[in-house]
Specification:
Number of domains: 2
Strand content: 15-25%
CATH superfamily of the largest domain: Jelly Rolls
Keywords: DNA-binding, Transcription, Transcription regulation
Radius of gyration: 19 Å
Number of helices: 7
Protein name: Crp/Fnr family transcriptional regulator
CATH topology of the largest domain: Jelly Rolls
CATH class of the largest domain: Mainly Beta
Domain HTH crp-type: 150-215
CATH architecture of the largest domain: Sandwich
Pfam family, one: HTH_Crp_2
InterPro entries: cNMP-bd_dom, cNMP-bd_dom_sf, HTH_CRP, RmlC-like_jellyroll, WH-like_DNA-bd_sf, WH_DNA-bd_sf
Structural class: alpha+beta
Distance between the termini: 42 Å
Length: 215
């Protein structure tokens, strides 16, 4: 069993600056939640979920269109913090995003009203929230730049290479639909480009798998 106080000290720079009473309240008003792979943690139709601190597994933050097409904005890994799921606690700060667990994951959820309360009385907390929001905005801008100025061939190549580095393997267990949802494309277009890559000897494609050969 892990220690919430230790995780907060490790992930939340402002934690050590809080009073003992504030620390106790933060620990008390946070809960450990387990999520299954594919489970939606937060959506644009959800009430305030709260500030999420990843303990294990990984999460995907994405937006979706009425047509069902999706595009991933950024991902959360061990000890990453997601502010967007708690943004609705702040006036004029809302984001229509979805948060999905991409594996069997575990996270600490901190009550959003408490985060609002702490930020109004503690400069360190507000400064952290602003910096965290700015960091994630930078990641979203990177995705926007990729989608606007790079061809889909280049984006698929970059995505596959990133996944290979993350998993430390040339064999990726991923479907064409997964890639489409990550990059905001359709499964048919992704399949066509992967087939072209395969003909060029860059990859090998099989059901639910993509093997990098000479990408």
């Amino acid at each position: 069993m892990f220690n919430k106080e230790y995780i907060f000290e490790e992930t939340l720079p402002f934690f050590k600056k809080l009073s003992e009473e504030e620390k106790s309240e933060l620990i008390l008003k946070s809960s450990v939640v387990k999520y299954e792979k594919g489970e939606i943690v937060h959506s644009k139709n959800s009430s305030c979920t709260g500030l999420l601190v990843t303990i294990s597994g990984n999460f995907r933050v994405f937006i979706s269109a009425p047509s069902g097409r999706q595009i991933t904005l950024f991902k959360l890994y061990d000890r990453d913090v997601c502010m967007l799921s708690a943004s609705c606690a702040f006036t004029n700060l809302t984001y229509d995003v979805n948060l999905e667990s991409q594996s069997n994951s575990e996270a600490i959820i901190i009550d959003s009203s408490l985060i609002k309360k702490l930020s109004s009385s503690n400069f360190e907390v507000m400064n952290y929230i602003l910096n965290l929001t700015q960091d994630k905005l930078s990641e979203v801008m990177y995705i926007l730049e990729q989608a606007t100025f790079f061809s889909l061939d280049e984006r698929i190549t970059n995505y596959l290479l990133e996944q290979s580095r993350y998993t430390d393997s040339c064999l990726l267990y991923i479907t064409h639909e997964n890639i489409a949802n990550e990059l905001g494309s359709s499964r048919e277009v992704i399949s066509r480009i992967l087939k072209k890559f395969e003909k060029e000897g860059k990859i090998e494609v099989s059901r639910g798998k993509v093997k990098l050969i000479n990408l």
